[in-house]
Each structure stands twice: as structure tokens, then as C-alpha cells.
Amino acid sequence: SGLGRQFSSRDRKGRVRNARFKLPQYLSVPELESKIAKLEEQARGMDIGEERITVLQKRNELKQYLDGEALDRAKTPLQLALEQLSDDIRRSLTCPISGDIMEDPVILFPSGKTFNRESLCTWLLRNPMPRCPWTNHPLERHMTYVENREIRDILIYYLGEEAYVRYDDSTFKVQYQALWNTRLAPADSHPALTEAPLNVVVSDTFSLFNAGLSYEDDDQFDVAEEYHERAASQGHAGAQYNLAMLNEDNHERMLGYLEQAAAQDHPDALFYLGTLYFDSYVVPQDLNRAQEYFQRAAAQGHSEAREALENLPEDMDIDQVHE
């Protein structure tokens, strides 16, 4: 594959080959410490010169080797492997909800975004109106997620079998259906989930976003905006997009939030920006940028963006579009 093997576990032989001296790989820690002490004692009795420098260099390499041994023993194989991941691989294995390396990656439909199964289940149950954590689109009663085998295989390839931990979601499925039954019950049969005051301690990004959605559903837009601003400041693309929609009368703020969300490939933000540049609303018309935004949104599965691309003239210019 194009990924290739980005790292190997800490290679003692490789480190020895690169050393100037042949290091005693099979000595115990006390033996290594004793050998270092003898070299230091030997160096103290020598005149300054090449021979003394050679002895001190050998001592330094032994100390470096010993430090590495101690560090490795204090870490698990999984921790050592994680340290060696490239940024690209780490990003592909990171759950957008928890920010941690996924243990059981699943694809949520229809967004096609991958999440850690346990994080997704927990997030959906905390949300009074189940929505995709990435696109903010409402989810159906019988929403679907499936194991992302490609990401699972990458996870195992780079971090080993112990990194893959299957989460039992059987209880979640029962609770999710119960949540839907509660939502479908008469509105006065259960307390509203949006009655918590704004000063309730909510700190993690997705809880802030969920709270904002709840206040939006209750038409408390000023309070919703406060929650979304706190989530957006922590980089939540859905909150950034919602803030854009709440600030449609303030074009500068709206564009700013749209661009922040689009930078994270939020499909609705990309489509909205494409529409603005195509229709020359708020911004000067720029058909090339409009097409670029439509293409990026379509790549995220946005159906309206795909339709917009199909309806674009093959040889676009401003006169043709206005005709």
C-alpha cells in the first residue's frame, strides 16, 4: 500500500551498527553501570589526548545505551510503537470525538466518517437529538455503522494485535432505541433536556456542541451561540458551521466561521461557501473557488454539491453564468 511501514520497533542491532564501538548488548544493568564507572576511572588517570577522548566517547555511548534501556523498560510495547507513528498515520487512527487513538474503528453512515465505536456510542446517548458528530446531520432511528476494516488493519499493522479492542455495543443498541422511544413520547411526559442553566459545568468539546444544539432546538439562540462559541474555540467544525448559520446577518462573522469549518472539510460549510462564490452573494463571484468548494463537499458525500457540479457549465465564465 501507499502507507508503507513508517517505523520499526526500537532496534538494538541498528543502534549498535551505528555506534563507533561495539556495545555489550547482553550485559545486565549493574554490569553496564560498573563498566561505565571503570571507564570514567580510567579516563581520570589519563593525560589529555586522543586516547582519553576515545575512552570518554566509549563511556558516553554506554551511558546513552543504558539510558535507552531504562526508558524502554518503563514503557509498554504499545507506548513505544505510538511514539514512532508519523503524523499522517496518527491522524488517520485518531477518533474525532475523543482525540485518542481508536481501539475499534467504525464508519458512521451516511457521513462516511470514522469514529471509535465506544466514543460514538457514548456520544449518541448523551445527545438528546442524535446527530452525526462530524456533519451535524440528524440520524435516523435505524442509523448504521460498520467496522472500518481498513483502519482496523492499519491499527493492527502499526500498533499490534493488542491495540485492537472490540467494544460490546449490544447494550448501546437497546439504549439508543429507548432514547428514540422517549423522543417520540408526548413532550410533557418527560422533562426537557435543555433546561440546564448555562453555568452548568460543561467543558469537553462535544458536550458543549450538544448543549448548543439543544438550545437551538428550544429556540434559545443566544444561549446556543454561547455554547457553540466555546466548542468552536476548541476546533469543533460542527459548532463553527452552526455559528455561521446563527450569524447570517453578520457577513464577516458568518464567512469567518464558514472558512474555519471548511478548513476541516465540513461538507455543509464547503457547499455553502461554494454557493456564495457561485452566486456572488456576500463575496465577489469566483467560479473557480465555487467549483473547488463543491468538489471538496462532494468528496465528503454531500449530495447537493454533487448536483451542483453536474449542473456547472463545462466552459464557465461569468457572462455564461449570468445568462
Q: Could you characterize what this model shows?
A:
- By secondary structure, this protein is mainly α.
- The chain contains 16 helices and 3 strands.
- Strands 2-1-3 form a 3-stranded antiparallel beta sheet.
- Helix 9 (205-217) packs antiparallel against helix 10, helix 11 packs antiparallel against helix 12 and helix 12 packs across helix 13.
- The radius of gyration is 28 Å and the shape is elongated.
Set down the secondary structure blueprint:
Layout (H helix, E strand, L loop, with lengths): L11 H7 L10 H16 L5 H24 L3 H7 L3 H7 L11 E5 L3 E4 H10 L17 E4 L1 H11 L10 H15 L20 H13 L3 H12 L4 H10 L4 H12 L4 H13 L7 H13 L3 H9 L6 H5 L1
Antiparallel strand pairs: 1-2, 1-3
Low-confidence stretches: 1-25, 184-203, 318-323
- The topology string of helices and strands comes to HHHHHEEHEHHHHHHHHHH
Number of helices: 16
Level of helix content?
55-70%
| SS strand fraction | under 5%
Distance between the termini: 48 Å
Which whole number gives the mean pLDDT? 75
Shape: elongated
* Radius of gyration of CA atoms, rounded to a whole number: 28 Å
How are the strands ordered across the major sheet? 2-1-3
Q: Report the count of strand segments.
A: 3
Structure classification: mainly alpha
Biggest pleated sheet: 3 strands, antiparallel
